[in-house]
Design brief:
- The chain has 11 helices and 11 strands.
- By secondary structure, the chain is an alpha/beta fold.
- The strands form 2 sheets. It has a 7-stranded parallel β-sheet, sandwiched between helices. Strands 8-7-9-10 form a 4-stranded mixed β-sheet.
Length: 367
């Protein structure tokens, strides 16, 4: 099937886990491939992914081989595959735009972004870089709240003729205007906002769906999250959280038996705890009524390494995008988006989404 050539916008913790994962599974066979939803997806193995271009704005990453840049500060995720060989692909200077929140400057260098003073590329230069690299898929790993920057790279993907996987809560794939433009160009898109392999949102959704199926009336719920990576530090600026909060809240609301009042549901980031690094801790509480209106409540604590949790889904989303390219399918990939993302254009239950994405992988055009 050949390689899936990928370009990365934002060489942070999630990119680090993805690049490490490509090498990690290249050294293993299917019998050792724990932690994957699909070993072979449409003829592509995890090791078939190849990074051919990368963009970042941090002075510690720009100009370095991608194999080195992924371990530079402020990245703090687990180095589960520290022996990533040099790829001969150097991180290019990207556009800052709104990718760096002002409050990040108040923290130590090891915790925050240090923007390079190098000349920022024009859109034409980024497009040319994508074309010259031969990239098939661009994956967006920019910081939360990077509205302008996310749209900039989406425009670059469109012009360069590259598929897009949007892993952040900026609504591009769920924007009908953007979706129509990608469809017109025959370019597949998957998004928006990655739903971790086994994270806060998928767990909260599963429990909410369970309440509905078992006839338990869900009256109130919250989801609180803490972490110590740059994503959580970035989200201390609440002005950057509007789309993130909407994405996470709607992911839960969409599978409830009846929509809850806004005052009865709180889903969103909570606080930044530096010593947690890339570990994310989620607290979920659900209150409801059983048979005879007898009250009940459920409380749960989930602890996960945030970025590998994301990469386990991204690796499938990228492969689905390439399968769609191979089949001549452009526009929104609804099944992969519904299964892999928190804010797809169409919300369905995870059971249905799983069936649909497996059908797509097997050859169905898409729903």
């Amino acid at each position: 099937m050949g390689k899936i050539k990928i370009a990365i916008a934002g060489v942070g913790n999630c990119a680090s886990s993805l690049v490490q994962g490509i090498q990690y599974y290249a050294e293993r066979g299917p019998e050792e491939a724990t932690g994957l939803m699909n070993w072979d997806l449409g003829g592509y193995l995890p090791s078939d992914l190849e990074v051919v271009a990368a963009f970042d704005v941090d002075v510690r990453k720009v100009g370095k081989d991608i194999s080195e840049a992924i371990f530079e500060s402020p990245n703090c995720t687990t180095a589960f595959c520290p022996n990533v060989p040099k790829a001969g692909v150097h991180v290019s200077m990207g556009r800052v735009l709104d990718g760096v929140a002002e409050h990040m400057a108040d923290y130590s260098d090891e915790r925050t972004f240090l923007p390079s003073d190098g000349e920022e590329p024009t859109q034409h230069e980024v497009v040319e870089k994508l074309r010259e690299s031969g990239a098939h898929v661009l994956i967006n790993y920019l910081p939360v709240g990077s509205e302008e920057a996310a749209r900039f790279y989406a425009e670059c993907a469109l012009e360069a003729g590259v598929a897009l996987v949007n892993c952040i809560p900026v609504f591009i794939v769920s924007d009908p205007a953007f979706a129509a433009r990608f469809e017109k160009r025959g370019l597949p898109i998957v998004g928006d906002d990655i739903k971790a392999q086994l994270g806060a949102t998928i767990t909260h959704r599963t429990l909410t769906d369970l309440f509905a199926k078992r006839g338990v009336k869900l009256e109130r719920t919250y989801q609180l999250n803490t972490g110590g990576n740059t994503d959580f530090l970035n989200m201390l600026n609440r002005d950057r959280l509007a789309s993130k909060k909407e994405s996470k809240t709607e992911a839960v609301q969409s599978v409830a038996a009846t929509r809850m009042n806004a005052d009865d549901i709180h889903v969103g980031p909570s606080d930044y705890v530096p010593w947690q690094n890339d570990n994310k801790v989620c607290f979920i509480r659900m209150e409801g009524k059983l048979f005879g209106d007898v009250p009940m409540n459920l409380e749960m604590r989930l602890s996960v390494e945030d970025s590998p949790n994301s990469a386990g889904v991204s690796i499938d989303a990228i492969r689905c995008a390439k399968v769609a390219l191979d089949r001549g399918i452009g526009g929104v990939l609804h099944s992969p988006s519904s299964y892999f993302m928190k804010h797809p254009p169409e919300q369905v239950t995870d059971d249905e989404a799983h069936r649909n994405v497996q059908a797509f992988i097997a050859g169905s055009r898409d729903n």
